[in-house]
Design goal:
The chain is an alpha/beta fold. Helix content is 33%, strand content 15%. The chain starts with 21 loop residues before the first helix and ends with a strand. About 6% of the residues have low confidence.
Length: 279
């Protein structure tokens, strides 16, 4: 049996990335006929497990385009990243960042858009993918001395993994990735977390407008998975609302400690409780 390729790992730094929780998450993911990740994000979990058959979805179309280009056009993508790396300065960064504010943005090829997202992700402050209300990338320049922009070994390894296995890439609402799953499938859910707030304003919006109503809809999707005999694991924040939602006997809740890797307030970086919900 061929071992896993350690170079298959996240290409992008993504909010809520799970690299530092892999030791808690991956042992809880059994072998399955199909691995399904409806909120794939940076992909730390799927790249750690490297299943032979997977359905990967995300609401962010730019993110899925990056994965599609890594799969289909790795050489063209690497060539453009080399170009970005050679030209990288603050002024160049802001000129590339500004492209989605200009009329010609829609004329960019898929590979040009993918290279832009990777370049901005590797050179922006905190490595944070962040957009404004208009959907325009708005993180500032990071001033890193030696940013890892090209990542040729990783991109080639991820491309090979995508090409040599049965990997379906989708973008849109997470529920589309849960329809018509075969018996023996396993689902890992990493939704935008329930916000932790001193005022308990849990109806406030998080990334992608994922409010409390969306958390309720997700719980109903989990009920549906259980009724179909499909096992799942979900990551979420440790708060009363989430614990109440999953309080019946169908669900198991495990508390884990995670480090906030991305936070604008430095004194808020540190260990925080999260939950792993299984069913």
């Amino acid at each position: 049996m061929r071992g896993k390729n350690i170079l298959v790992r996240p290409v992008l730094k993504w909010v809520g990335g799970k690299r530092q929780l892999l030791d808690e998450i991956t042992p809880r993911i059994p072998k399955s006929s199909t691995y399904v990740e409806p909120f794939v994000g940076g992909g730390a979990v799927v790249f750690s497990k490297q299943p032979k058959k997977a359905i990967l979805n995300d609401f962010n179309s730019e993110l899925i385009n990056v994965y599609q280009c890594i799969k289909d056009n790795p050489e063209d993508l690497l060539s453009l990243l080399e170009e970005h790396a050679e030209k990288n300065t603050a002024d160049y960064f802001y000129s590339i960042r500004a492209l989605d504010r200009e009329s010609g943005y829609d004329a960019l090829s898929n590979v040009e858009r993918a290279a832009r997202i990777i370049y901005l992700n590797k050179t922006c402050y905190n490595g944070l993918y962040r957009v404004n209300a208009a959907g325009q990338f708005n993180a500032p320049y990071g001033k890193y001395k030696h940013p890892s922009i090209v990542q040729e070994p990783v991109i080639k390894a991820v491309s090979k993994y995508f090409q040599e296995n049965e990997i379906t890439l989708m973008h849109g609402d997470y529920a589309q990735a849960l329809t018509g799953l075969e018996h023996g499938a396993f689902v890992y859910l990493d939704p935008p977390y329930m916000p932790l707030s001193e005022t308990s304003a849990f109806t406030g919006y998080t990334q992608g407008g994922f409010d409390y109503g969306e958390q309720v809809r997700l719980k109903e999707q989990c009920d549906e998975l259980i009724s179909q005999g499909i096992h799942f694991l979900q990551s979420n924040s440790d708060c009363a609302e989430i614990r109440d939602l999953y309080s019946d006997h169908h669900f198991k809740i495990k508390t884990v400690k995670a480090k906030r890797a991305i936070n604008s307030k430095g004194n808020h970086r540190g260990e925080i409780n999260e939950v792993l919900i299984s069913g």
